Automatic annotation (TrEMBL):
Molecular function terms, GO-annotated: metallopeptidase activity
Co-factor note (free text): Binds 1 zinc ion per subunit.
Membrane topology annotation: Multi-pass membrane protein
Residues of the Peptidase M48 domain: 118-311
Name the record gives this protein: M48 family metalloprotease
Cofactors named for this entry: Zn(2+)
UniProt keyword annotations, A-Z: Cell membrane, Coiled coil, Hydrolase, Membrane, Metal-binding, Metalloprotease, Protease, Transmembrane, Transmembrane helix, Zinc
Pfam entry (one): Peptidase_M48
Family: Belongs to the peptidase M48 family.
InterPro entries assigned: HtpX_protease, Peptidase_M48
Main location (coarse class): membrane
Organism annotation: Bradyrhizobium diversitatis
Amino acid sequence: MKRLILQIILRLGRYAILPVVALACTILAIWLMIMDRYTIAALATAPIVFTIFMAAMALAIGLLFLPSRKHRSFEADEETAPGLWAVWNELDRSFVGSNRTLRVDTDFNASISEESRYAGLFGQHVTMTVGLPLLMILDQRAVRAVIAHEVAHARLRHTSGGTNLADFMAAAENVFLYADPEHTVTGYTVRILLHSLLERLEKEYRALSRENELAADVEAAEQVGREEMARALVMMEVCGARLTDLVFAPLQKEVLGAIKAPLPPFARILDQIAAIRAPGPMTAAVASLSREHDPDSTHPPFGQRLANLGYTDIPDIGEVQASAVDQLLSPDAANELTCRFDEEWPKKVQEWVSVGR
């Protein structure tokens, strides 16, 4: 039964609630039909029937119709990011004529998702999100391999099952955003109904995501080359570790003791960009090979990903070329995005500081 529920959610996403609504309506219809003939039994079961029906309708309204949280990322058109669009079109010709969106956010990461609007009646909308730190730190070769990895997810249909599962969980969490389970009866009821299901779905999502990452690495390696894919993985691991040590870890300490917003992240990245991108010992990559894997991670261990590509040791990444941001974004876009994201940072931190966080 649990496996059946999972398969329905993988197939339908948030629209998996519709069979539940249909079942609740059927129960209500049967109850209404037997009311005249079996009045006492109908009255006795009325609380159960109406509870089921109202709970199903509340879930349906919450999952299907509540407005989603707004994107904090920036939508980049072909004038803003001509190089990124060119790489995406080159690697994924099957989607050239489809409905697509390219977004830039603040993460040192990239992702791709597929949205079936109105249960797929109006086709698929594919969104790729690329982090500005990724473009600033990696070179064009590495970014191309990362995009090939994301395109592989779409080609292997990972964006259908995995995205539908994530979509259902995000929609359920969205219900709690509008109906706090600690302060509203609706939120409390929904949490009782969904708590165990969401826990299981999160475990399934992490396991499915790790499997998909390995498959996408292999698929991308066939397109851009095994060496290029492995090189990108090493650069992501090394530069990501340096980014944490030089930028985000010190920033987190300053925020904890701040009385006003400290220097924003992108200003710090620009100050440390040479150290983050500097060629040197692959200490971070070597350490990652023996690091204990986080069971809550949606990505497999670094060593497993390299072994999946046929590597037992850290491959040589060669010369780190010029930053990809100048080649893939328009001349003014990088500065505009950096300023835009940094302008949002003081507002966010000031909220934390004002409540003593």
